[in-house]
Amino acid sequence: MIKSCSTGKNYYFDAQTAVEALIEHLGRNNFSHGAGPINVYHCNMCDGYHFTSKGERLAILDDPPVKNRIEKLRQASEWEGRYR
């Protein structure tokens, strides 16, 4: 069962799952510099986690292996878009 939130945002059960989803989201969407989600937060309304574009950038997003993963996901998404 997928839980929902009255905010309308996607619900993630825990912070780790939300961070993984954020990495995937950044890789699948081509946000311009300074745009898009940069962190996750705990929601008091649904007791889950959501993305946010406010506050500090999540430090793990700047780790070389994560940056490389995001770039590879972007490239894959770009190629998939060419063949749709």
Describe the protein.
The model has no long low-confidence stretch (mean pLDDT 90). The longest helix is centred in the C-terminal third of the chain and has 19 residues, at 64-82. The chain has one domain. The chain is 39% helix and 10% strand. It is globular, with a radius of gyration of 14 Å. A two-stranded antiparallel sheet has the order 1-2. The relative contact order is 0.21. It contains 2 helices and 2 strands. A hairpin with a 6-residue loop joins strand 1 and strand 2. The N and C termini lie far apart (31 Å). The chain is mainly alpha-helical and 84 residues long.
Low-confidence stretches: none
User: Strand order, biggest sheet?
Assistant: 1-2
Give the domain tally. Answer: 1
Characterize the biggest β-sheet: 2 strands, antiparallel
Fill in the keyword field for this structure.
84 residues, single chain, two-stranded antiparallel ribbon, mainly alpha
What's this, in brief?
This protein has one domain.
Describe how the helices and strands are arranged.
Blueprint: H1 15-28, E1 39-42, E2 49-52, H2 64-82
